[in-house]
Amino acid sequence: MSDPQATATAYQVFGGAEGIRTLVDRFYDLMDLDEAAAGIRALHPQSLDGSRQKLFEYLSYWLGGPETYVEKNGHPRMRARHMPFAIGESERDQWLHCMQQAVSETLPAGEVRDKFWEAVVGLADHMRNR
């Protein structure tokens, strides 16, 4: 018998749209409420609705789900999209602090989550421009 997770995308393993939405909402709730994330929160608009939607669409695409992000925005070019914002080690660490807590609270433990987390850390570090 084959392991269904061996052929499933991370998007599917994490619960599809519902799972990714839960992750993204928890992430932004933490960013909005945790004083330790005040610096990264200040880089976002007052309303986080647009940010929530973009991250949801991006992560859905990145994890093997619908390509809505690319259809709306073109190639992700994440570093270029983040260049207007001053992102140093502190901002990266604040972002990762919120994302790590959201990941640990909302995504199922296991190899897929571990690989996702490694990729997220690399992506967050790549966003540094200061």
Secondary-structure element series: HHHHHHHHH
How helical, in percent, are the residues?
A: 55-70%
Strand % is: under 5%
Mean pLDDT metric: 93
The CATH topology name reads Globin-like
Shape: globular
Number of helices in the DSSP assignment: 9
Q: Rg from C-alpha positions?
A: 15 Å
So what's the CATH class?
Mainly Alpha
End-to-end span in angstroms?
50 Å
CATH homolog superfamily:
Globins
Short description:
By secondary structure, the chain is an all-alpha fold.
Describe this structure as you would to a colleague:
It comes from Uliginosibacterium sediminicola. Pfam families: Bac_globin (PF01152). This protein is mainly alpha-helical. The chain has one domain: Globins (Globin-like). The protein has helices spanning 4-7, 10-13, 16-33, 38-41, 49-62, 68-73, 78-82, 89-106, 111-126. Helix 8 (89-106) packs antiparallel against helix 9 (111-126). The radius of gyration is 15 Å and the shape is globular. The termini are far apart. The model has no long low-confidence stretch (mean pLDDT 93).
Q: Tags for this entry?
A:
130 residues, mainly alpha, Globin-like, 9 helices, 68% helix, iron
Ordered list of secondary-structure elements with their pairings:
Layout: H1 4-7, H2 10-13, H3 16-33, H4 38-41, H5 49-62, H6 68-73, H7 78-82, H8 89-106, H9 111-126
Helix pairs in contact: 3-5, 3-8, 8-9
